[in-house]
Amino acid sequence: MSDRTIPADGIGMHLYTMRDVLAEDYPGTLKRLAGIGYRTIGVSGRFDHSAEEIRSFADDAGLAIVLEHVGYTRMADDWDSALAGVKTLGGKWVVVPSIPSELHSVEGFRTAAAAFTEAGKAARDAGVKLLFHNHGRDFDSVDGQILFDILLEVDPELLGFEFDLYWAVEGGQDPAKYFQEHPGRFPALHVKDMAADGSWEDVGAGKLDFAAMFAHASEGGVEQWLVEHDKPTDAWHSAERSYRGLTELRF
């Protein structure tokens, strides 16, 4: 371990964490996040605002939007619009947050890989990069094949990953190993901690060894560390505590 820290402009908030307060006051929420110290955000749900409006809210707050989550089915039926929206927001990544449950098989993940290949080409042509966000069951082993690893076979120019560290560990994996074995594939992270009982915890207050993971973050190509908590009791307390946990981390 060294005295390395996460660069300030790499610390962001994935807005799913803040969904309750966003629904009440989107622009005010962004300004308060900036006041805590966050520099970037990942968009997850627009709450009846247009992409233009959200971009203006972020600009007014001094926050950079780095990505937006869009559903898997939009790759087939609304991809041009999805890409245009991410461009309007100013994001560099378009993120598919999950693969439909009916595709959770070796053949299904191969189908998804083919879909990501084509969608990734269109994203590249539009000037953004396609990423996939994992959950725990994406690391299920079926017939000796880890499903997630099928996606790593897609051309790295066409598909990267927003690596959710909690779900990777919950799925039995070591994120540091993925960073080392698949360099440059993980430009964005979801950083959320795991409580002793396996539930979600604020960053730095749980049991995940982020220092060990982040020691290899540069190999993984990490540019953004986005805080996430799926069910915070108090979103603002969680946002402040997790920001502190990330800024105080040494690795």
TrEMBL record:
Keyword Isomerase in record: yes
Isomerase listed as a keyword: yes
GO molecular function, one term: isomerase activity
Taxonomic superkingdom: Bacteria
InterPro entries: IolE/XylAMocC-like (IPR050312), Xyl_isomerase-like_sf (IPR036237), Xyl_isomerase-like_TIM-brl (IPR013022)
Alphabetical UniProt keywords: Isomerase
Cited Gene3D superfamilies: Divalent-metal-dependent TIM barrel enzymes (3.20.20.150)
Residue ranges of domain Xylose isomerase-like TIM barrel in the record: 31-227
Coiled coil spans: none
Alphabetized PANTHER family for the sequence: HYDROXYPYRUVATE ISOMERASE (PTHR12110), INOSOSE DEHYDRATASE (PTHR12110:SF41)
This protein's name: Sugar phosphate isomerase/epimerase
